[in-house]
Amino acid sequence: MSIEVLNESGAPIDEKALADLARHVLDGMRVHPLAELSLLLVDEAAMSELHEKWMGEPGPTDVLAFPMDELRPGHMSGGADEDGEPDPALLGDVVLCPPVAERQAAAAGHGRDEELELLCTHGILHLLGYDHAEPEEHKEMFGLQDDLLSSWREKRGRR
């Protein structure tokens, strides 16, 4: 599994821990190991620009997800090479904004890194086709998010 983390936010981020979390989430969702994911951390100005361009909403947001290939848990799409081996599929990009995450973390009473973990997990679930517009979708997506974060924190020795 290829996970690229690019920090353009200027904030100090444990990029390896974020990539490890993403791998944990993708493994937990049974995404094929040849999938590729990009995590991009940006400042508020860059996030505002993306938010306005793609969502039509002003100002920065906490997370945006840009799906690429149609991957679903346990499946692979991306075609195959001439030998029949699967080509790596691009899951997509998750864009995170640490300054917004920091404010949200303070309001929620936990640390910025915990908020970034939540947002990263949330973004990956969106890439996998989950949504939370309807009550049943909300219940399913946030249940998965809670389960994945709990197992991640248990694995890391945190609650």
Written account of the structure:
By secondary structure, the protein is of the alpha/beta class. The protein has a single domain (2-155), classed as Collagenase (Catalytic Domain) (3-Layer(aba) Sandwich), CATH 3.40.390. 47% of the residues lie in helices and 15% in strands. Strands 1-2-4-3 form a 4-stranded mixed beta sheet, with helices on both faces. Helix 3 (98-108) crosses helix 4 and helix 4 crosses helix 5. 28% of the residues are buried.
Summarize the structure in short.
This protein has a single domain (2-155), classed as Collagenase (Catalytic Domain) (3-Layer(aba) Sandwich), CATH 3.40.390. 47% of the residues lie in helices and 15% in strands. The chain has helices at 15-28, 44-55, 98-108, 112-127, 135-155; strands spanning 2-7, 36-41, 63-67, 90-96.
